[in-house]
Amino acid sequence: MIVDNLSLMVAYLFLLLCIPAYVFLCSERDSVLIYKVSAVVQIFLTSLFYLIWGGYSADAPIYNEASIWYSFEFPNVNWYYLFKVLFYYPLSLLNKIIHPPWPLRIISFFSVLIYIIAIVKLLNNNHKQICIALGITLLIPAFYLLFGNAIRQGVAASFVMLGFAYYNEKKGYYYFILFILGALIHAASILFISCILLSKLKYKWIVAIIIISPTVSYVFNYIISFQGGFGLDLPIYIYGDSHEGLYHYERFIVSYILSIIILIYYNKYKTNGVSSFILSYPIMVGLSSMLLWYQIPFARFLAFSDFLIPVVIAKISDYSPFLKYYPVKLIISLFILYSGFILWTHPSIIKTLGYAF
């Protein structure tokens, strides 16, 4: 049954990815109706994914017991869980009302929906760009990690992304409330919030952040390692040549190269009205890379940065001169479909969604 379930999941994602691939291949002369219908279908089916294949988290026992701690042992609740009451308490109550795994599925569904609303707002209802962004969303590992297993981080990231959208529109103080919610649900989102605020820095300072970030991480690691870290009790994760370490550095290299490409594109096309929002991604990668020698914080921060990739790539896709040629777009589309198949059948994604491999 698991094999059949996984086969259906891969087929579902593949067919869903075919929609933005088709939109990407369409010429600008095609009807706008195609873009609108495609965007609506993608929004519905992308959100629906977690109602069908979601529901797994390694922290599920905590969600089930948290309401008891909060209700009957409130004075003695560990400060860590007390601080996360906005997430743990509602979810644990939902566990008492609806049979698991539906509470997690529902939370994942609404988190994805909030994230998609943020994408729509950040792309100013440009339906073609929305289709492309939602297609890219299916190709980032963070979509499966943060909306699946590490759902608390996914909820926090969704609120922050929606906060970005309101901040970008300069509408009221909604963004402030959403930023606070994100920070209270998961503290790692504080760095995520910082990257959008820092995107207003001068271009040369952002380039400097990217250039010096790996060196900062090395120096920081050396300082806190010196003589026991000067009394600081901080975990040190130096990867060496382990398989996980190689994957860690591969993630860094890919993100770093993508950041450089984005910086080049922005510098070249900023006079055409390219939003400074796309600089949020290289800033987030730079800030994350300052902790490159530390496994947990670097991995978490970089996963947050992945949430920016769909919007950023969708925005710069209109400015690439190579994408004017149909054969180039066809090759890219086939490569994307192939990449999706490789990602969805990878053991790490299968385990993240709670299936045995």
For the sheet with most strands, the description reads: none
Structural category = mainly alpha
Report Rg. 21 Å
Which residues sit in consecutive blocks of at least 5 with pLDDT less than 50?
238-246
Average pLDDT reading: 80
Order of helices and strands: HHHHHHHHHHHHHHHHHH
Percent helix: over 70%
- Gross morphology: globular
- Portion of residues in beta strands equals under 5%
Overall tally of structural domains: 2
Count every helix, treating DSSP H or I runs of 4 or more residues as helices: 18
Number of strands: 0
Q: How widely separated are the two ends?
A: 13 Å
Explain how this protein is built.
The protein contains 18 helices and no strands. Helix 1 packs antiparallel against helix 17 (326-344), helix 5 crosses helix 6 and helix 8 (141-149) packs across helix 9 (151-169). It is mainly alpha-helical and 357 residues long. It has two domains: 1-56 and 101-187 and 322-357, no CATH class; 189-319, no CATH class.
